[in-house]
Amino acid sequence: MPTPDVVLKAIAHALNGDTExxxxxxxxLVDAGPTSTYALLGDLADIASRRARTSNRDGHMFVFxxxxxxxxxxxxxxxxxxxxxxxxxxAAWANGDADTAQALFWAAADHADINHTYDLADGIxxxxxxxxxxxxxxxxxxxxxxxxxxx
Length: 151
What we know:
Layout: H1 4-15, H2 19-31, H3 34-54, E1 66-67, E2 73-74, H4 81-94, H5 98-115, H6 119-150
Antiparallel strand pairs: 1-2
Helix pairs in contact: 1-2, 1-6, 2-3, 3-4, 3-6, 4-5, 4-6, 5-6
């Protein structure tokens, strides 16, 4: 099972511009098998969705919204497969929908195994990238707040 330290260190690498280093840190969790990989995805989805979950009341349902270049929402169905997987997995995790999260995981894992593709690896990378982006936004916001408090 992933440890928070490994996941947080991996995110820290990404925040410092070393995404590959972060992915390398979590690779042993993926190599350990599906249970560890699913738990890793859950930890990353938790980071990616924490801001939304803590800023909304209980009972809200979360969806993954992507803005296109014109600022208009883009359907998650129009995204490339890794980002589609990431958006759906993070939303399912944020909603506490373990059945959907597990179904998405196994669909990606089984497809990757059967077709010898990188679908699951690319999906994990997409969830990792989103988690790192959200963590970076939260960190920047906290720094702005501290700077304002010092002014």
